[in-house]
Protein 1
Amino acid sequence: MNSKFKIALLTLLGFSASSCCGTKKVAKDEDKKEQDIIINEDSDPRVQLMYGVPFPDGSVVRPVDENGNPQPMSPRNGAKSEGAKLPDGRVAVPVSEEEAKERMEDMSKEQTHDEEPDEVDMVLE
Amino acid sequence: MKGRHIGIRKRLALKVFKGMYDDVVERHNLRTLFWECTLRCNLRCRHCGSDCRTDVSEKDMPLEDFLKVLDTEVTPNVDPGRVLIIFSGGEVLVRKDLEEAGREVTRRGYMWGMVTNGLSLTRERLHSLIDAGLRSISVSFDGFADVHNDIRQNSESFERARKAIGYIREVEGLAYDVITCVTPAMIERLEEWKEYLISEGIRHWRIFSIFPAGRAKRDDRLNLSPEQFRYLMEFIRNTRKEGRINLSYACEGFLGGYETEVRDHFYMCNAGVTVASIRVNGDISGCTSVRGNYAQGNIYRDSFWDVWQNRFKPFRNREWTKTDECKECKVWEFCRGGGMHLRDDEGKLMYCHYNMLK
């Protein structure tokens, strides 16, 4: 008897697939009615272990404020980076995509076309 | 009350599931890896199930030793995305390099989580851990302040745990649950406790009861009577039917007529089947709650992967548990001698959940 048949048999007996293998109850998009979807193709069960933790559901982890608005990943992420010191004493600072674009345009005015870099996501100050 | 009686439909399902569990044992795919990174703790709880023979002055395992095992033994043999690594203790927050450990584990493609008593979990520390890839966290919360603080032997432990849970709830997408170890002092207040947890916005709750190991073995005030245990099962079953909070009984013990009604799945002990641990002294075992003398090898002298593939026989073939009260037991085929952590150093069963339902 293969595992799919056994799962079908258990379902016929009135037990959800989540009681015996790696499944998860998820809501349908349209009517929000719950259904079982097998997310673990080899059917290994995910058991909540005695001194274990719940199995993560794959969503992105981020803080929200009291009104439920997403916040930066951490206070540190929200703070301006001090950058990384290079051996020659200069500092490499991460910049946003917009800032990088502006700086590239400025640089392109100063540089000849054959020296233009392909991509810039760090600038030297 | 349901008690031990198993109806025909459930008995048939258990027989089908038995075959599925045999397949899981045959495959023994590693799905959860505990790293007991420290035995140090900032509390001295009355019900601590730690192995008391273990010298608590045992030094923390250096991070590089654990990463070496991951890099040379585990990662080449598994899909990291399917293995959950759980940092376990002691109290893991006492380790100052926890974030570094988390980052290194995340960088290798693993998800990781941790269990904490919440005493030293500030909002800043939580966010710092999330930055390091923390995906799941469980906090011990054993009852109202008088009970929790008494068990934890610390007057601030309830308030600190409450705040820690609040910080966790602020984070979207972080898997969490609150763990209550139910003692006789809380059994009559469970309804009240449930309402409190719901009012605090908690949606995921796990309950377990004491098993006689570690310090708990010597404290009779912590153990439930069979009547209290049956009441607990009824409470969990009714709470699950209400659907206001996701409540489950822990994985341990076969529960007769309550199977699939107090937790989401049929009983199975996955220690050494899909779960391994690397203990603080390098021992390789099943769950960290299993006694020390069931170690199957040691990372400092054996190949972890060779041990996982070729040893672990006492975990994967449990015929040896068919002794004493298990010898003639009619449900052994479903229970297989109970959880490995319920066996003492000589292999004798310390606690039978099924018998508690008599």
Protein 2
Amino acid sequence: MTAVLELDGITKRFGTLVANDAVSLSLAKGEILALLGENGAGKTTLMNILFGHYTADEGEVHVFGSTLPPGKPRAAIEAGVGMVHQHFTLAGNLTVLDNVVLGSEPLMRLQSQRARARARLAAIAERFGLPVDPDARIGDLSVGERQRVEILKALYRDASILILDEPTAVLARPEAERLFDTLRGMTRGGLSLIFISHKLHEVMAASDRVVVLRGGRNVAERRTADTDPDELAELMVGRRVTRPRRQQHATGAPVVIGTDITVREGGERRLDGVSFQVCEGEILGIVGVSGNGQAALGRLLSGLARPDAGRLTLNGEDMGALGPRALVRAGVGRIPEDRHAEGAVGELPVWENAVLERMGTAEFSSRGFVRRGAARRFAHTLIERFDIRGAAAETRTRLLSGGNMQKLILGRILSAGPRFILANQPTRGLDEGAIAAVHAELLAARAEGAAILLITEELEEAIGLADRMQAIVRGRLSAPVAAEQADSRRLGLMMAGMWERDDAA
Amino acid sequence: MMEAFDILTTASLWAAVLRIATPLIFGVLGALLCERAGVLNLGIEGIMTMGAMVGWLTVFLGADLWTGLAVAALSGALMGLLHAFLTVPLALSQHVSGLGITLFASSLSYYLYRLIVEVGDLPPTIAPFRPLAIPFLSDIPFLGPVLFAQTAPTYLALAAVAVLAYVLNRTPVGLAIRMTGENPHAVEAQGLDPIAIRIGAVVAGSALMAVGGAFLTMAAFNSFFPQMVQGRGWICIALVVFASWRPGKALLGALLFAFFDAYQLRLQNVVEDVPYQLFLMAPYLLSILALILVARRAQVPEALMAPYRRGER
């Protein structure tokens, strides 16, 4: 087979960081190539170089035998390369047609040829089985539909090589499977595909060949048929990392009970009559595709949103009206969804972040002055106890890696001996080693009797940690399912909102 | 009290409305164009001053009126280029750069004026644009003097509204400008250069602003003096929000403000016992009220004031 695309010795440095280190790979016509790697392995950087968003420091890109000029998306598009960005490059206030047509006409034309564009878009949508309303405003479309538009944008420009950056990050599993069916169909029409992923199961299911990136290098290439998830996992991480598993144990009395809670924000029902309870020594997993009300649930349990209807109790007392400070005092620990925005103040030193929630207590302040010595000593014990690497008490927090910042936040919470912990996407963006550490700490807190509500998009995480699970879809919660009865298939269906038929569990 | 209402039926009031609105129309269109591409241009007050001075000076030094207008536009474009350079490729704060341009352009205008022009007891004058009575149409009672006996730049302003609306909504370059204001990453991903588009929009928008300023010295009045722009630039910035970033509504907003202004001028003569400062204040107060009523529904360009740096999200 002939290569339609070749990357030859691509090196890209950001300051001292080498994001891509002499990476070479090739793509054959009609092939689906998976680019597998952890966060920070350099997958997206590599594809951004290919598409011309970045300029490589060394190396060349060849498309159909000719070399692409570096740093020019226009040249990549004209050579037949299309890119479906993970963070969609769409304008929410404009229509589908506007978004698709942009850039396809000479700029100085006196009138945009809308009728022709509309017909062409309709023909392409029909041919590839990607139906879409050309006049819909992007902002009114679902995430899946937006992705369809993003793909159509590339096809409209006659892409014959399609790059998809984490295409399933925002899709529920059945949607993701449908997407890969569609993509498979496209390759039969002669399209060649590269998709970026860190999910082993979809790499195994959807690709012909896998290139594994680690630390910016191409560490392995396998035909998908000749490999298995265990080997790929080890190649991806570079060593064998096993996540700790939950041990079966008896749970205690309910700690947090939510009954028929509705939360409205900005005129919309973010949570719609949800009920849940979390017991001592139990992890309740809330699984769902992002954007289905997790953020509102997180704010509710952090004291940042009030229930408009329903009742929320902590150890039998009303918790719904408590603000963040009162919640912390009542023994609630919170791991926020976005650790950079809400978990830690990047510009402050580690020790200030370590005591931030308890700055006002006698332990860390007296007569209105911060007890800096005590706070620093405390930060130091956290660094030791939670193995926070690359940090001293004075280190500016934003210099920590994601995993170490998360350990700092965990340490801050767990050292207070919380009775209830909200863990909102606790391992998002972390590498396998850090994930295993965070999981171990959460399970240790569970063993000590903390009640934990875990919000996650990763089924494997929910299955590994949670005693019971509920799916969140469009602000509603499914009935809980015990861990023993939940496999990834059933959870996948639940995350797609298909639980109404079997509420039995 | 009846007199206050009688004013409303005079043709001179409504003719004045169009006249007063003209610099605002140019200014608001210019600001709107910049903002549709995602750049706030607070240099407007200074750029209008610059246009007022440069246009007048060009004519004072012997050029004809249209050349003066063109040179004024060019001076605005240059100031716009400076603002664009600072805020787009260098991605500096649009507020700081804009206010800096306003201070710089105003001071430079006063300085050049004093340097080149000898000012006696009265400022020197030029022969300004004269009202252009359109044959037959200007003879229509009431409507004639209001609509068809204005100066040429006023007609130009009205045409500019239609042209800008067409360009933004119907042409590929307009789509590119709008998209740049919404999501510059989308523009780059489609193979266009959002930085070039932003620079172009800011330069063109600033040229429009300068023409608005030039109207003051070349049609509304016939000489230049410091502080003559009198906050019209700031009004335009507010009118863009009032207009929800749409040219048609921008025209409406400019006319509304001009109406308040023209009306209060005439009210001062008929209503006694009220300090005239209150009337002077009224257009601004009413504009704020109108802004509050309308602006909550305004659809802001999503990437307004968000600097775009290549390779960053």
